[in-house]
Amino acid sequence: MAERTITSWLTDMDGVLVHEGHAIPGAPEFLRALQERGRPFLILTNNSIFTARDLRARLATSGIDVPEESIWTSALATAQFLHDQVPHGSAYAIGEAGLTTALYEAGYTLTESDPDYVVLGETRTYSFEAITKAVRLILGGSRFICTNPDTTGPSQEGPLPATGAVAAMITAATGREPYFVGKPNPMMFRSALNRIDAHSETTAMVGDRMDTDIVAGIEAGLHTYLVMTGSTTMRDVDRYPFRPSKVVDSVADLVDLV
After folding, report:
1. Residue 54 known to be catalytic
2. Which end of the chain is more exposed for a tag (fewer CB within 10 A), N or C?
3. Active-site residue identified among 14, 211, 236, 253
4. Domain membership flag for residue 146
5. Beta bridge partners of 118
6. Before 25, cis peptide (omega within 30)?
7. Is 214 exposed, middle or buried (0-12, 13-18, 19+ CB in 10 A)?
8. Distance between the two ends of the chain, CA-based, in angstroms?
9. Is the dihedral of CA 190, 251, 212, 245 positive or negative?
10. Is 65 part of a structural domain of the chain?
């Protein structure tokens, strides 16, 4: 595959830049190089719990310093999508500050009374009462949107049920499938490109997962780099019918390409 001239970068966060609260070797240098050379970039995450400001602070404690404007969450992408679909609409949201803040800043009214959308995000404390309310609103005509399809999330005690798992329960109760905005929907990448005024032909995506980062990058028309510092091994790569543009050991290998 011919090498493209890359002028803009998108990168996943967990498994690429950080692992369990610690910066992956080379990640601070990679992000510093992007900033020093004036390359437009965004850090992408399917996590909708935290605001960009929260995530900036969490990255800072791991030794990675980026402005909050350089972080693009599935909650922000979802809020942008809803604003484009129905400006100044209304939503019943199940989630935490990352989602409710994004919806509010996009001009949305949060309500339990006949909302345009039921929006399901990630939270560590899913309430059966809130899920019941969502089911009834969807049956009453509200459209069903989810920030991301991940079925489990990590915790110190082990996997937790995440957005996709709760969405499946709501779908079973309503017969309505949600529209997922986050990865692997290339919609998340297209909104990120718009955010930094970048073009797919000259943008690269750096990720650690074939089934989200790489497939969405390919579908969005991006050059894709798969790193081996996350959840994917070379044996895994061969199982998929598509391939990244290039496989590298870690983000440290990309510093000189910025």
Report:
1. no
2. N
3. 14
4. yes
5. 92, 144
6. no
7. buried
8. 19
9. positive
10. no
CATH code, domain with 131: 3.40.50.1000
| Average of per-residue pLDDT across 176-191 | 96
Please give the tally of structural domains in the chain: 2
Domain annotation covers residue 54: no
DSSP string, 5-58: ---EEEEESBTTTEETTEEPTTHHHHHHHHHHTT--EEEEE---SS-HHHHHHH
Residue count (the chain):
258
Do the Cβ atoms of 147 and 76 come closer than 8 Å? no
The arithmetic mean of pLDDT across residues 145-169, rounded, is 90
Give CA–CA dist 7/218, Å, rounded: 17
Question: Of the listed 12, 150, 208, 213, which one is catalytic?
Answer: 12
pLDDT (tens digit per residue) in 192-241: 999 999 999 999 999 999 999 999 999 999 999 999 999 899 999 999 99
29 within 8 A of 37, measured Cβ to Cβ: no
Domain that holds residue 159: 86-180
Among 165, 166, 251, smallest CA distance to 213 is for: 251
Active site residue 208: no
